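Input sequence (392 aa), recorded before submission:
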Amino acid sequence: MKNIQDQSDLNEKKVLLRLDLNVPLENSKITDTTRIDKILPTINLLLKNNAKIIILSHVGRPKGRVVNELSLKPICEDLKSKINTNIKLITKNLKEINSKDLFGHSDEKVVMLENLRFYAEEEKNNNEFAKHLASLADIYVNDAFSCSHRDHASISKIAKFLPSYSGLQLSLEVKALNKITLEIKRPITCIIGGSKISTKINIIKNLIPKFDNIIIVGGMANNILKYKGYPIGKSIIEENCDQIIEKIFYLSKKESCKIIYPEDITVGKDLNSSPKIKELNNVSEDELILDIGPKTIKTINNIIEGSSSVLWNGPAGYFENPDFAKGSFEIAKKIVEKNKAKTIYSVVGGGDTVALLYNIGVVNNFNFVSTAGGAFLEYLEGKELPGIKALN
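Predicted structure, token format:
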């Protein structure tokens, strides 16, 4: 990929900048600005080089209809205050505008086009829609890694029509994931959670030949415990997963990758009850497994201590209740300790895991924190992302 930093002449060039500004909104108020904050370096680089910026983005799922509650207006206002530059939001039908309509005055530097998903052609990856968007500018820049698994007009098709570059944030995401999956510094450990093992099976299969340890926690681990013959009470579980688990253990043995799952657990009668630490064979029928136990924490921390690289996707328990967040907290604490000593390279991704790190105030103590969800996971599966392929 060519990075926008490789383009020496940006003076007065019109740049179509695809961003992921799909931030959470409540009553038109932004509740988390992380995705906005991460793309500021690319915008500031373009402004410094006197480029004219045309921002493309979406929010929500309006399904090709204009939905006023999903306007980019509040996002435009937030971004305006952060870059200390006026941004004109263009609400006119995108299919009826041309390049001359965008910058009315010579001092206008940034415009934002209204929600791309107001147009059905965006998600249909329509060739003419992409060609029209491309006609508005001289250069295309994708700084939306978290959208790059989508085969949409403004992500993949548009690169056919313009010189195309990656933005600074997208390049950082790809570099971090390559470092953890291709340029491996061993021993390397993956901590993977979530409720459904079937959604992560392809990731696990892809990582087993590359990783030394794969630690399975969260709801996914309940399937393994049941497969091993342990009682799991009324814990969350996914049906018909025995073949998946057999495949995981078969591949791990073949590739000499150790699979680690809980040795003890923390249970509760419900999500808000008092926590109890239990041995694996001692879970009652009316109990839920909601976190890992102290023996498991010690084992995981010992593995992290001996690792040079770690990838973490998915908390170890029901962290929304602090009583069941101890496993996740201790894992985070151990990685942070190694990170501060500069003895580990750490990559974290997935909304719940990132939320956990923000909650406990350690998000800046990891080498890389990805805001991407689906794109992060598909990259780990070894899939070719349309947005990345378009830039290569």
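Checked by second reader. The radius of gyration is 23 Å.
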